Amino acid sequence: MTIKRLKLKISGMTCEHCASSIEKSLVQAGVIEANISYLAKGGTVSIDLRKTTLDDVLAAVQSRGHYRVVDVLELNSGESSSARHLIIIGGGSAAFTAALQAHELGARVIAPEGGELIMQIAMGLKFEATVADLREMLHPYLTASEGVKLAAITFTKNLEQLSCCAT
């Protein structure tokens, strides 16, 4: 089975019901997997190239009324959707940016220590932050791992080793 994974930007959605309606239409058109979100203004689809074409996908979206696919990005070339994984250790800004970039490329992201990171990613996705947006942002507070490091250093009273965020 030759699988193609596509990221779609869709205009015309006004609520999550719109996204659900588009997903149903895509599944009826032969799409293997469809994850459409109103907040993301689009989503991802996986198609079997032997059964479904890009034209079928576009027609399925547009058959539901005023929805239009305004951009299509191919996420991989025939690999299964589980081919890309990212495990993030830690919870700083770099981990947050890496997780968002990996998500944009269709990877599955795991962050065993990332409760704070997961919340940041969710907020970034909700407000459609791009990697470029994140590069310009600073976290005005310590991350969980920096807080533990700060506490450990404070016990030794060597204040020169404090995190840059604590000065």
UniProtKB/TrEMBL annotation:
Pfam families noted in UniProt: HMA, Pyr_redox_dim
CDD domains linked to this entry: HMA
Molecular function, one GO term: metal ion binding
Superkingdom, taxonomy of origin: Bacteria
Swiss-Prot/TrEMBL keywords: Metal-binding
Domain HMA: 4-69
Protein name: Pyridine nucleotide-disulfide oxidoreductase dimerization region
Species for this entry: Caldithrix abyssi DSM 13497
